[in-house]
Amino acid sequence: MNYNPDCPAWGNLTWPKVEEFNLANGAQIGRDLKNFCKQFAVDLDGAPYGLHAHQFRRSYARFVARAELGDLITLQDHLGHWTLDQTVYYADGASDEYEVDTELIEMIANEKNERHYEIVHAYLTTDSPVAAGAEWLKQWRTTVRTAENKEQLVKEYAGTISLNGTGHSWCAGNSKGSGCGGLCVFQAQTCVDCHYGIIGQEHRPVWEGIRQQQLEALDLDDMGPGGKARAQEILQLTEKVLRRLDGSET
Prior knowledge:
It is a single chain. Helix content is about 50%, strand content about 5%. By secondary structure, it is mostly helical. It has 3 domains: about 10-50, no CATH class; about 60-115, no CATH class; about 125-250, no CATH class. The strands form 2 sheets. The protein has a 3-stranded antiparallel β-sheet. The protein has a two-stranded antiparallel ribbon with strand order 1-2. A hairpin with a 2-residue loop joins strand 1 and strand 2 (about 45-50).
């Protein structure tokens, strides 16, 4: 598939003025995609490429599986289910009031499993400091380090847990109904000393942002004693996380 970057339309994209609009439907979206390929000279073997919405499914699956909050928020909202496991359950044949795209669910599940393995592998094959989950990760890391077949052992470990992204941690407890029961999505501080949470280096920018928010809140003149006490508490927990990620506190 090719496109012509010199096509005048690339630099002169305009939107017509309209007085009313209609809701999009599948047929109209299909026509719009094909017109897009014609307008921007996107072709295949010399003919306008027949782009259609169905072809975006794999990209959508990859996005959902690899977005930190995808499995918790995006997917459940899109499919009307509580978790990906529930959606897969329905797709396998259980009764469901929603129309489920089984092939799409399989794509998402495959992408999610691949991403899941990547995360577990990264944690078990390095000694990078973590701010939560250090106790059991340390045991697993030691075992993997001395294992004859490290890759196989990592796969076995990965199969024993299910990680859900919260944006500020990986939660291994939600899928089993353990820990905070999902409250950590909204209250990051609950992850700091949670046995079921993992806070790694990829989460550092989020925690630095949380710390900055608390510092700004404490500078507010109109914040009452209760609000300041709350901000101070979260600030202390946030600084604990950052010290752990620096390796200066365990």
